[in-house]
Amino acid sequence: MEFRGAFTALSTPFTNGEIDEEAYRAFIEWQIEQGIDGLVPCGTTGEAATMNHEEQGRIISICVDQAKGRVPVVAGAGSNSTKEAIQLTKLAKDAGADAALQITPYYNKPTPGGLVEHFKAIAKEVSMPFVIYNVPGRTGLNLLPEHLKMIVDAVPEAIAVKEATGDLNQAAQVIEQCGKDFNLLSGDDFTVLPLLAVGGRGVISVISNIMPAAMSGMCKAFFEKDHEKALDLSLLMAPVNRAMFMETNPIPVKTSLKMMGLFKEAEFRLPIVPLQQENLPKLEAVLKEAKVI
């Protein structure tokens, strides 16, 4: 399975504490109409950490049903508990997801051998394509390229990595270790274009929640060797990227979706709280400058 282009790490709309299915389906449809290459429900941006298993299964099922095979769905299914990761991966597979996004176990800080055994155990119970998610800023563990190679060699299901270190040297070493055919995806919107240049296939993106045409268009332009257009789109997104991380993700992006009228509310679940009042005009100004609103 090849992953190519821009995949949106979908934000999840809530209304009165519950999943807003109508808004979620409309949002997915808009993403596809805008030319997005793939969808990722139940990731960090989707606030999966505050959902129970029933809600995660429902979110993935809605996404798969609404996508109707038009674009691939990579469902968040990871946990720092191997047992729970197996349960969540079963949910993803039963819902019809094309692949599972598997975060490296957070807080536990397993050894390289522990990482290999973690992913082997999941694959033994639920065989489906895995995108390994390396985000040391949230997990406290950096999956080094040589250790990723150990996982890839031991677990045939591990066919991609979401590399969210922002370290281009490390990203280049992933291709060096795992080969040019390995699916290297950016998990850092600031460095997508240079990551493509060192062998990346695309991105699992936050900003594509609000600028899907720009992010997918940048990837397409790069692959078509229109590097000037790719650079122009990268520069267009740069200030919006900074705004998306003025506070903890997904606070700014969900607030932006409310400003765009795509979500009825910018509602979060604790411990995530709304954007600080003093940042609202700053965010609005950036979105207006980029013609997002």
What can you tell me about this protein's structure?
This protein has one domain (5-226): TIM Barrel. The termini are far apart. The protein has 293 residues and is α/β, with parallel strands linked by helices. The longest helix is centred in the C-terminal third of the chain and has 18 residues, at 227-244. Helix 7 links the parallel strand 8 (158-163) and strand 9. It has helices spanning 21-33, 53-67, 82-95, 112-125, 136-139, 145-154, 168-178, 192-197, 212-223, 227-244, 251-259, 280-289, and strands at residues 5-9, 14-15, 18-19, 38-40, 74-76, 99-103, 130-134, 158-163, 183-186, 202-205. The strands form 2 sheets. The protein has an 8-stranded parallel sheet with strand order 4-1-10-9-8-7-6-5. Strands 2-3 form a two-stranded antiparallel sheet. The model has no long low-confidence stretch (mean pLDDT 97). The record marks 49, 80, 84, 106 as: L-lysine inhibitor binding. Pyruvate binds at residues 45, 204. One of its GO terms (molecular function) is 4-hydroxy-tetrahydrodipicolinate synthase activity.
For the structure shown, list the relevant keywords.
DapA-like, DapA, eight-stranded parallel sheet, amino-acid biosynthesis, alpha/beta, TIM Barrel, 10 strands, cytoplasm, lysine biosynthesis
Quick overview of this protein structure:
The chain has 293 residues and is an alpha/beta fold.
